Amino acid sequence: SWTSALITDFNGQQRSGTDIVNEYGVFGTPTLLFLDGAGHEIAERLVGYQSVDFYWSYFERTIASAWSTLSKPMR
């Protein structure tokens, strides 16, 4: 099951699916997280499912937000 599957985290460590879910506070499916290379959330997460039209619209908007965050110069 996914809870016992080993997943490589952003530090290269093997962790269980349960550990990853707990770290990011995921409580339902589907949950889409938009993360940078260090594992930090860079846009609003998408939790749950509405309808195809609404979901796709939210998905595109969130991708644009994530790209915008990644495009900003680091300070």
UniProtKB/TrEMBL annotation:
Q: Which Pfam families match?
A: Thioredoxin_2
Protein name, as recorded: Thioredoxin-like fold domain-containing protein
Q: Where is the Thioredoxin-like fold domain?
A: 16-52
According to the entry, what is the taxonomic lineage of the organism? Bacteria, Pseudomonadati, Pseudomonadota, Gammaproteobacteria, SAR86 cluster
Specify the species.
SAR86 cluster bacterium
Give the top-rank taxon of the lineage listed in the UniProt record for this protein: Bacteria
